[in-house]
Amino acid sequence: MFGVVRPCRHQLSDDLHAAWMSHLCGLCLALRDHHGQWARVTTNVDAVLVSVLVAAQPGRPTERRRAGPCPLRGMRRIEVAASAEAGPRLAAAVSLAAGAIAVGDHIADGDGLLRRRPAAAIAQRVADRAAAAAERTGSGVGLGVALLERAAAEQRAREGASARGGAALLDALAPTETAVSAVLAHTAVVAGCDDNRAPLAAVGRYFGRVVHLLDAVTDQLDDARTGSWNPLTATGTSPAEARLLCEDGRRDLRHALAEVRFTDSVDARLARLLFGDGLDHAVDRTFASTAQSPGPGRPGQPPDDRPDRRSPQRRRTGSACLVAAGMFLTCRMCGEYTSPLDGQRKEGLCSRGCDLDGACDCCDCCESCGECAECDCCGCDCNC
């Protein structure tokens, strides 16, 4: 499951948590209903914001249906946004397109097993299938996902630029800002609230900037090791400067969000929380996790002590990752299991929880499915 905005269970009241679950699982099930089980692996938590925004704007209420039990929400049945609704379908199109673009980027960078032509060819077919599915679903709600593909192509074209400084960084982020701006503005079209198009376009622009910066900060060290292009390294932007840009983006986003006309509903409250505390939490978590990391080398110059890409250890790690992915998608990790990475017995995902004493000490808890993050839907074939 991809994305950066993952609200902690302890930040949500019961009604907000129920609304978040409804949209998240609604997206996951919309992917399944329209494209089959395989599509659920593209579930993107940031795309959930699209579904939430559609429901939060004035218009007819979002239809909901009763979903069956799923291991990653404790086998509970809940009310979810119906997959036939415009909000989940728009979110599904965005999620599929984002997944296809991400796979394409990994192929272009030659990451892991994708350095090998057979693996790259298989991955490309999967990406093409996801892109085609995104186009079909997007066209049904009036969104041409080709704009996301064009933004990705423009992004790759700008990666060869050697300019440095803040202006060069913002120029490198511009395609992402434009694409996210268009998607969030389209939620106003789907909801029938044209007066919200301009402020939501601004919200999308700043949200796209912050999310791209967070991805760059998270990936900077790995990009340096592999020699991949990273906007922060390429433009000489320090972590402090990146954090300042994130803070400026969050401030401008809040001002733009204040201009959006919402209903007086739990979905509107959830939208404000996700773009507020949810994004703040993501920024704090990202910079806290990278604060102690050693700085990367110069652009295109990975450290000399990196392991040989063709070493047996790297091959074993790649195979173990594929096995781990299969175990996750088939719910083999819900209970106690043996890790394919190190052969050790591990605590099941569904048994993890949070420290309830005082402040929540579980910045990444929403990536599991214990008490603090029972919100993740997996690609399990359990008719949920």
Describe the structure.
Pfam families: DUF5685. It comes from Frankia alni (strain DSM 45986 / CECT 9034 / ACN14a). This is Transcription regulator. With 384 residues, this protein is mainly α. The protein has a domain of 219 residues: Farnesyl Diphosphate Synthase (Orthogonal Bundle), CATH 1.10.600. 57% of the residues lie in helices and 3% in strands. It has eleven helices and four strands; from the N terminus they run H-H-E-E-H-H-H-H-H-H-H-H-H-E-E. A two-stranded antiparallel ribbon has the order 1-2. Strand 3 and strand 4 form a beta hairpin. Helix 1 packs across helix 10, helix 7 runs antiparallel to helix 9 and helix 7 packs parallel to helix 10. The longest helix has 30 residues. The radius of gyration is 20 Å and the shape is globular.
Provide the descriptors you would attach to this structure in a database record.
Transcription regulator; disordered C terminus; 384 residues; Farnesyl Diphosphate Synthase; two-stranded antiparallel sheet; DUF5685; 11 helices
Blueprint of the fold:
Layout: H1 14-35, H2 45-56, E1 64-67, E2 78-81, H3 86-109, H4 117-140, H5 146-158, H6 166-191, H7 197-226, H8 231-235, H9 239-257, H10 266-290, H11 312-329, E3 337-338, E4 345-346
Antiparallel strand pairs: 1-2, 3-4
Helix pairs in contact: 1-2, 1-3, 1-10, 2-3, 2-6, 2-10, 3-4, 3-6, 5-6, 6-7, 7-9, 7-10, 9-10
Give a quick precis of the structure:
It contains 11 helices and 4 strands. The chain has 384 residues and is mostly helical.
SS field, number of helical segments: 11
CATH class of one domain: Mainly Alpha
CATH superfamily of one domain, please?
Answer: Farnesyl Diphosphate Synthase
Structural category: mainly alpha
- Poorly predicted parts: 295-315, 350-384
Number of strands: 4
Percent of sequence in beta strands: under 5%
- The helix fraction, in percent, is 55-70%
Q: What's the main sheet like?
A: 2 strands, antiparallel
Rg from Cα? 20 Å
Written as H for each helix and E for each strand, in order along the chain, the element string is HHEEHHHHHHHHHEE
- Reported by name, the CATH topology of one domain is Farnesyl Diphosphate Synthase
Strand order of the largest sheet: 1-2
Indicate the CATH architecture of one domain.
Orthogonal Bundle
The global form is globular
Average pLDDT confidence is 79
Distance between the termini: 17 Å
